[in-house]
Design a protein that fits this description.
Structural class: alpha+beta
Strand content: 25-35%
Largest sheet: 5 strands, antiparallel
Helix content: 25-40%
Length: 257
C-alpha cells in the first residue's frame, strides 16, 4: 500500500505543469501544492519529492538567468557618447599621423633636391680645379683681384686632353644663373644650373692661388634650398711661383683608362 502511494506521489510530481513568472515558479492550484509563502500547503507525503523537484528547477532557472544576464552584457551596444568619444580620438590620431607623413615626405623631397644641387655644384668645382691645375697663365681675374659675374676665369691650358688641344684658352662664364665652360676649339658646355652667386679670387703675385666660392639656390614648393661650396686650387705649371712649388710646364694629369 505504501509503495503504491509512493508511486502515485512520484507520478503526480513528475506530471506537474509549471507556469513561469519572472524568476518565480508557480504550481497550479489543482495539484494541491504551491511554493512556500503562497498561501497553499504541500500535502503530507509529497513534501520530499516536491521540494526536491522545485529546488532543482529553481537552481536551473537561476543558472539560465545568470547566463542570459552575462550574454546581455556582452551583447550590449555602445552609447552615443561613447561613439562620439571614439570618433574624436580617432580623428586626433589620424590628424597627427597624416601631419607626420606629410612632414616626412616634405623633408625627404627637400633632402633629395638639396643633394642634387650639391652634386651638381661639386662636379662643376671639380672640373674647374682640374683645368686650373694645368694652367700656365691666367688672364682673368688679374693678380690680387676677383670676379663674380660674366667671365669668371680665363686661362691658357698647357697640355692637350681628349677634349682640348694644347695651349687652348679655357673660360668659365656665368650666364643667367648657369655656369658654362667655353674652350676656343670646343663648343660651350653647361656645368651647373641654379647658380646664384660665384666668386673667383686670385692671390697677389707671385701667389697664384685661386679661391672659388659657389652658391646654388632653388625654390621648390615655397621652400628655398641653398648649397654653398668653396675650394682652393693652385696652378702647377706656372713658370715661377715663390709661394708654392710648381713644375714649370712638366706637370700633366694622366688620362684615365
Amino acid at each position: 500500500m505504501r509503495n503504491k502511494k509512493s508511486k502515485l506521489i512520484k507520478s503526480s510530481v513528475v506530471n506537474l505543469t509549471f507556469l513561469n513568472s519572472g524568476l518565480r515558479t508557480v504550481i497550479p492550484a489543482k495539484a494541491g501544492i504551491q511554493i512556500e509563502k503562497t498561501g497553499f500547503r504541500i500535502k503530507s507525503g509529497m513534501t520530499k519529492y516536491v521540494k526536491s523537484y522545485l529546488n532543482k528547477h529553481i537552481k536551473m532557472r537561476k543558472h539560465n538567468s545568470e547566463l542570459r544576464t552575462l550574454n546581455s552584457e556582452l551583447q550590449r551596444g555602445f552609447t552615443l557618447i561613447e561613439i562620439i568619444i571614439v570618433i574624436v580620438i580617432l580623428s586626433i590620431v589620424s590628424a597627427i599621423t597624416i601631419k607626420f607623413l606629410v612632414d616626412s615626405l616634405r623633408i625627404y623631397t627637400m633632402t633629395v633636391d638639396q643633394k642634387t644641387l650639391f652634386d651638381e655644384g661639386k662636379l662643376a668645382l671639380e672640373r674647374m680645379c682640374r683645368d686650373l691645375r694645368d694652367a700656365n697663365s691666367i688672364t682673368t681675374p688679374s693678380s690680387g683681384g676677383s670676379s663674380s659675374s660674366g667671365t669668371l676665369l680665363s686661362f691658357t691650358r698647357t697640355h692637350a686632353t681628349a677634349q682640348d688641344s694644347a695651349d687652348d684658352t679655357i673660360q668659365f662664364i656665368l650666364s643667367s644663373g648657369t655656369l658654362q665652360r667655353k674652350a676656343s676649339t670646343r663648343p660651350t658646355v653647361d656645368l651647373a644650373s641654379y647658380v646664384t652667386a660665384i666668386t673667383v679670387t686670385r692671390g697677389t703675385s707671385p701667389n697664384n692661388e685661386i679661391t672659388i666660392s659657389l652658391t646654388l639656390s632653388r625654390t621648390i614648393s615655397g621652400e628655398t634650398l641653398s648649397v654653398p661650396l668653396s675650394t682652393k686650387v693652385i696652378p702647377k705649371n706656372f713658370p715661377t711661383d715663390t709661394t708654392y712649388k710648381n713644375f714649370k710646364n712638366y706637370w700633366e694629369e694622366e688620362e684615365s683608362t
